[in-house]
Amino acid sequence: MFKEFYSENLYRAVFTFPKFTRNYSKNYKAVQYSFKKISKKKKTLVLDIDETLVYATTNRSELRAIDETIFIKMTKFGASVKAYLSYRPFLFQMLDTLRNHFELILYTCGTASYAAAFAESVEKNGGKRYFDHVLSLQHCLYSMENEIYIKDLKILEEGRQLKDIVIVDNTIQSFFLQLSNGIPIYDYTGDKSDAMLPLLCDYLQFQILTAPDVRTKIDKDFKIKKLIEAKQDYYNR
Ligand SMILES: [Mg+2]
Fold first, then answer.
1. Cα separations in angstroms, 159 against 26, 37, 99, 138
2. Ligand 1 centroid – CA 76 distance (Å)
3. How far is the CA of 111 from the centre of ligand 1 (A)?
4. Could you tell me which residues are beta bridge partners of residue 169?
């Protein structure tokens, strides 16, 4: 059901997909990190923040309805920027359901202080702790050729296996390194009639949770890897 929404758009996304080489600056290697598995839940759900769970802007007039205002620390001396959030509809219902089944992790290419402010606002509004770990820019790789940041799920391998990890992200490029672990979702830009999260929630709960290897299931359902490999072959001819 959920995956059918994507077939047409995926083709479009894949055709505008940049050519990737294997040139990344592994800047996170310099960062001390440990994302040990705390939760006993078998599967791990990694969630992108911007345009996946929320639309955030510093320009108040961009949003008709503001759900929350956060302050993002810019320097350690206390200067901060005010940002306005519009939560994607059904965000809290989805998190309330999925926290019972998945270990939940946020992973953004935004700054650590933005990620922390977002997580705090969601947990304050939801009245509970949802996220086991919050990963941000310092945990991303940088693709010099494409001038974009990429996420790398290998950073989570301590205590987990890639067959049990899924990432949901509105930008396919973000999970380029593990295409078989990635579930794409349409951009959320503040439209309160958006109803993607209930569909995503059902797909995760009823199809991904029972999959022995999420990669096989995702490859079969979304075919992103196949499409991109076909395109890369075309480039490499
Ligand atoms: Mg995003």
1. 22, 6, 18, 21
2. 26
3. 13
4. 184
| 109 CA distance to ligand 1 middle (Å) | 8
CA dihedral 147, 135, 16, 59 (to 10 degrees): -80
The tokens describing 54, both together, are: 């929320």
Domain boundaries of the chain, sorted by first residue: 3-54+88-236
State in Å: Cα 49 to ligand 1 middle: 6
133-179: per-residue pLDDT in tens?
999 998 998 877 777 888 999 999 989 999 999 999 999 889 988 99
Quote the pTM value.
0.91
Based on the number of CB atoms within 10 Å of its own CB, is 193 exposed (0-12), middle (13-18) or buried (19 or more)? Answer: exposed
Architecture, CATH, for domain 3-54+88-236: 3-Layer(aba) Sandwich (3.40)
144 CA → ligand 1 middle, Å:
19
